[in-house]
Amino acid sequence: MDLAEIDRRAFDRVAAARLRGLEFVLPRLSKAADRGVLWFGLAGALGSTGIPALRRGALRGVIAIGLASPSINLVGKQLFRRRRPLLHNVPPIRIRRIPSSPSFPSGHSASAAAFATAIALETPKRVTLPVLGLAASVAFSRVYTGAHYPGDVLAGVFSGVVSGLVTRLVWPTRAPARVANLTREIELRDPQGAGVIVVSNNDPETITDLRTELPRAEFVDCQDDLEAKLEDAARRAEILAVCGGDGTVGAAAAAALRHDVPLLVLPLGTLNHFAKTLGIETVADALDAYWSGSVAHVDIAALNDVPFLNTASFGAYSELVDRREGMEKRIGKWPALAVSAFRVLRHATPVDVMVNGEPRQVWLAFIGNCQYGTRGAVPTSRDNLTDGLLDVRLVSVKRHLRRIRALAVVLTGRFWPFSDYEYRLVESVTVDSRGDLRVAHDGETEDARTPIVFTKHPKRLVVFVPI
């Protein structure tokens, strides 16, 4: 007996089955998944929650469907051209519409599996399991309604799972970084926040719930004079807590280092790269870390003794940040970023620098605090905050470099065949130029006096992390 005969017999068994309650449900579920409507709607619902993990899962799910659907419909179906099953054994109540496209593989099953796999890569089990159940129901409904043979569905599921996993090549999944000396404090922290000073540059209404959770903490508004207020708070606090984006957190980390106090990061900025690397995605995560007393020692990098937590950069990215800040109050941060990137691509020019004594014309440079996982010119994520290294990435001009080629280098890094891209892991690097150099670090820009020495302070910063 060949595989095709086994497939037909399996289909006949499903067609002969009578599952009470599902005669009405499964055909409608199958129809809801037409053209991915079910999954795009679910992605919209998850994205609207504002929960970072759910938003990432929703976006990854849409990307996975974008990979799975063309591969099935434009390649798989046209390659195999299998006929649809005969419907003489399928009760008419189940048959909604007879598709005209080839049967193998199942596109509905591929989209369902792709979305479910993407969700499983990002979200907790309480979300993943219902989505997996829904995806399995859609896949089964394609056989139950007579649209596909079981083999079509299995092939579609396999293709969808592969598409979901492939998304990790272009967008790595986020996981908390490894940190050193993870300990649980013996003394209990005051659950109401006594001894905690919270410095915030957020709107007071944004932190109303935080004031309720930590009624005995002191709250300091730092809409202006940020560094002075952080310095005063760090000098007086037992624990320094900071609300804001990466720039504000970086300034707080510098103050915490100077006064040897632990830092509690409350992720209320736009991107919150450092907090997410610690595994803190929400204020609730930060409070759980505080109440548990779980602290760790992590690396901090510095440029000329100015600490930074994520990356420092010069060249086109510094110009992009300056342009974005000039427009974001008028049109919003993300539109300003898009417009700025377009203008920088058109007008940016390389800067002449000496990198460890070697002359370079640098179009774009990133120096990361610890090694980043991806190998492109733009760092994205880390899984270790204690390696004692700087991640240095340069897009240099060794010969005429057209801007479109520079963009290709930025997107592909060392995989561009004629790349002027350099990647190295070092403990320190010195950059010199004629006069000051415009540098961005943790989203803030400044004119830094050269030579600039980028160094590391291994395992110096004490931070609260979730257990």
**Percentage of residues in DSSP E strands:** 15-25%
**CATH fold-level assignment of the largest domain:** Vanadium-containing Chloroperoxidase, domain 2
Instruction: Give the second-level CATH assignment, the architecture of the largest domain.
Output: Orthogonal Bundle
Measured on Cα atoms, how large is the radius of gyration?
27 Å
Taken from the alpha-carbon principal axes, the silhouette is: elongated
Number of domains: 3
What's the quick description here?
This is Bifunctional phosphatase PAP2/diacylglycerol kinase family protein. This protein is of the alpha+beta class.
What does this structure look like?
This protein is α+β, with helices and mostly antiparallel strands. The chain has three domains: 3-170, Vanadium-containing Chloroperoxidase, domain 2 (Orthogonal Bundle), CATH 1.10.606.20; 190-292, Probable inorganic polyphosphate/atp-NAD kinase, domain 1 (Rossmann fold, 3-Layer(aba) Sandwich); 311-457, Tumour Suppressor Smad4 (Sandwich), CATH 2.60.200. The protein is 45% helix and 21% strand. It has 15 helices and 16 strands. The chain has helices at residues 3-16, 22-32, 37-47, 52-80, 107-122, 125-144, 150-170, 208-213, 226-236, 246-259, 273-277, 283-292, 316-331, 333-347, 403-412; strands at 180-184, 196-200, 218-221, 239-244, 263-267, 294-303, 306-308, 311-315, 351-355, 358-369, 390-396, 421-426, 429-432, 437-441, 444-448, 452-464. The strands form two sheets. Strands 1, 6, 7, 8, 9, 10, 11, 12, 13, 14, 15 and 16 form a twelve-stranded antiparallel sheet that branches. Strands 3-2-4-5 form a four-stranded parallel sheet, with helices on both faces. Helix 8 (208-213) links the parallel strand 2 (196-200) and strand 3 (218-221). Helix 5 packs across helix 7 and helix 6 (125-144) runs antiparallel to helix 7. The longest helix has 29 residues, at 52-80. It is elongated, with a radius of gyration of 27 Å. 43% of the residues are buried. Residues 411-419 have low confidence and may be disordered. InterPro entries: ATP-NAD_kinase_N (IPR017438), Diacylglycerol_kinase_cat_dom (IPR001206), NAD/diacylglycerol_kinase_sf (IPR016064), PAP2/HPO (IPR000326), PAP2/HPO_sf (IPR036938), YegS/DAGK_C (IPR045540). It is found in: Cell membrane. Keywords: Cell membrane, Hydrolase, Kinase, Membrane, Transferase, Transmembrane, Transmembrane helix.
